[in-house]
Structures are given as C-alpha cells and as structure tokens.
C-alpha cells in the first residue's frame, strides 16, 4: 500500500476552522521552532472545546511537545495565532497564561526534589498564597497521596508519585485548561494506568485537558478527540475511538506493538 501523505487525509484548514468555532483554546496556522530559520510546527491547527480531553499523538519528533510549548508561550509563534476563549494569547508569556487559567505540566524536571510535597504545591500557588488551604483540600481529594505524604521530599518519591505532585501543583491555581506533556512517560504499566485514570478524573472535575502522549492507544481510549501530528502538521483529527480503529492511523502510528497492548 502506498503510504498516504498527511495532506491526503487531513481536514482542510477551512474545515478545521469551521469545527474550531467557539473553541476554548484554538491554534490556527501556527509556525514555530527553536532555531532561526528552522520551523518545527508548519501551519499547525488545533482546537480544544470546553470540557474536552484531547490527545495529541504521532511519531517521535513530530512536534507534539513543541505544539504544547507554543500554546503555553514557551516558544515564540512565528506565524499564525493562538486564542483562549477568543482572546489572542499568541506568544503571551507562561505566567500570564497561568493567571488566565492555563496550567502546564512539563514532561521532565517537573518537581523540586529538595522541597516537600506541600512546599512543591505552595510553589504552584505563589500567585494566590491565601487560597492555599482551600485549594490543597480540592487537589487532595483528587490525589489523597499528596495529603498523606505532604511532609515527604519530592526527591524521595517514585516517578508515578512525582507525576502526581507535578499535576497537583498545576491544579493548585484552579486552571480551566491543563496541558500535560507525556504524563505516562517512564512509568511502570501500573502507574501508567493510574495516571490515565487521574487525567480522566481531573477532566470530570471540570478541567479541559490537552495531553501529549507516546502511549497512543491508551491515550485515545480516554480522550474525546485526538490529533495525529506528523512533521509539524496535523495529519488527522477525529474522535478517540474513530482514530483508534482507523486503518490508516493503525498502520502508520499505532502499529502492531500498540495493537498488542490493546486493553479491553
Ligand atoms: N530545545 C530544542 N532546541 C532545538 N530543537 C528542538 C528542541 N526541542 C525539540 N527540538 C526538535 O524539535 C523537533 C520536535 O520535537 P518535539 O519534542 O516537539 O517532538 P515530539 O513529537 O514531542 O516527539 P518526542 O516524543 O520524541 O519528544 C525534533 O526534531 C526535536 O529535535
């Protein structure tokens, strides 16, 4: 079979723009990169509707993490736009986005190892310290471990527990949107399941979620919608179940390995 190029099975930018109308977060034609003259994202389109959990999957180096960083103002957007509730937030710095209700959990180095769990969560609240107790109670409901072990230094925790601290810290500011960069990376299968369950719970608590994931099949199982990114462009977007069962997506991105990992 001839490999379809992304353009052959992508929604056109016009179709995508129509679908994106009224979205909570929206990226249109985003071009971004790290090195001058080298674009990693090449006219990338994205949207997240209020209440959705949306997964971004695709091969290594496709630009998934770069898309999250460009939404969160961590790398400048060279062309195109990013909006939040219709407001232009293109290349706005991360601390401004946090105040506007966007939380971000990076893939690595996402906790302060020498600080306790409680102190890590306090760092998440530096903009609104008076609300700490109130927010800690809410976040503690989602992650009881953070309360039980609040005096333990984050450096002494397992990878899965650190991930909970990182997510908990981002949730302390009561975000309406949470960006998660490969939350299951490096975790044992048991902890991976735990992380996906937590993501679903966070979403059920009213937070819209954008999740980049290597574990594509598991991600699509819990997502309302997914994007397949390839070479800095959207190759495909559809509901999680539709993507999971699409023969082209299976052949190109999910593959036999992911197929063998399929869960009931
Ligand atoms: N800080 C950086 N400086 C220069 N190039 C970078 C930087 N970070 C990422 N890149 C490059 O950008 C491209 C996309 O990387 P990105 O991390 O967005 O990919 P990804 O789809 O998230 O894949 P992976 O799962 O492998 O991280 C890669 O070619 C990568 O080498």
Automatic annotation (TrEMBL):
It holds the Pfam family ABC_tran. GO terms for molecular function: ATP binding; ATP hydrolysis activity; branched-chain amino acid transmembrane transporter activity. Residues 25-256 form the ABC transporter domain. Keywords: Amino-acid transport, ATP-binding, Nucleotide-binding, Transport. PROSITE patterns: ABC_TRANSPORTER_1, ABC_TRANSPORTER_2. GO terms for biological process: L-amino acid transport. Belongs to the ABC transporter superfamily. This is Branched-chain amino acid transport ATP-binding protein LivF. It comes from Rhodococcus wratislaviensis.
